[in-house]
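Minutes, project huddle
Topic: does the predicted pose make sense with iron/sulfur cluster bound?
PN asked that the exact inputs be recorded in the minutes so nobody has to dig through chat later. Recorded below.
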Amino acid sequence: MKIKAQKRKKALVIRLFTKKIPKKIRILTHTSGSDDKIAIFFQILAIFFQILCLYLLHCLLLPLSVNYHFLRTCNYSCGFCFHTAKTSFVLPLDKAKYGLQLLVDNGMEKINFSGGEPFLYQGGRFLGELIRYCKDELKIKSVSVVTNGSKVTEQWMIKYGCYLDIMAVSCDSFNHDVNKKIGRCTKNGKNQFDILHQIRNWCREYNVMFKLNTVVNRFNFNEDMNEQVKKINPIRWKVFQCLAIEAENIGDTALRQVEPFLITDEEFNSFLARHKGIENLVPESNIAMRNSYLILDEYMRFLDNTGGSKTPSKSLLDVGVQNALNKSGFDEKMFFKRGGKYQWSKEDQILEW
Ligand code: SF4
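Predicted holo structure (tokens), as shared on screen:
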């Protein structure tokens, strides 16, 4: 996988710099006749360009997989939430589409829409249109969404399911009281696992791959979820260690306070050990999570987590993708190490439910 991505990266740079310029230099060298000094000059120039290309190749970041948190508002109130409703801003649809086009031009192969709760805005129509645009017009290989599931409807699945590769639903417990303690529900809302089962069935019906996300925290780290998860059988079960992010869920300006939810590495590992029999479990410790995601916020700014808080770049709409990416803090090696590149398109997957 990694080799493929590097090949694509190479192709981008090579297309830009290596083929045309050195070739022209070589032609000039040969046509410079008997003048040895000119020939040597052009040969040195060719070497210089090759070194320059290698340097650019090293610097170029490929936004292979991007998480676009296009809104921050949510109808749930998870106590550890680290992408909180600091603004209610959402880009106009045409600008969001333009930004996605720029990302594709720079090598993006997977887009994940997230929030906040992405289905909350315009009753899911905005999300649906972005998903359709990405799959139908931009031909992006993998289009996915992460949702709490509470606002997903069958009508939406009928209309947009054909453009969607993966739907990930978050559920932290199969005990309603635990989800209530966490805030993973609305005040009068349904059980989160009822929502999970409903969406799982729609995914089967409308040919969308189903993924489960769980945040392991103080209230659920002792739970045994084996039976329920096996029953649901997601294509991937992402198990995150509850994470603190300055100014999001920790610190004076934060809208949430994560401290009562945090667990130790040993507690996280004990949860993983209890569920080691589940093949599709993908664990994500705090270290793996911090810098291995390309996170784009509601203004299309990359968020750099390296300092323990989210420092935004300038918007890629203003400075272009590569300039914005340079401020993203993205650790490409960690992305591949945590298995960030996987079978993420339903075209590659034989759906056997
Ligand atoms: S569902 Fe919970 S974690 Fe997700 S955005 Fe809403 S409040 Fe945050």
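Observations noted during the meeting:
- Strands lie at 65-69, 110-114, 142-147, 166-170, 209-216, 236-241, 281-284, 294-296, 301-304, 311-315.
- The two ends are 26 Å apart (CA to CA).
No decisions taken; revisit at the next huddle.
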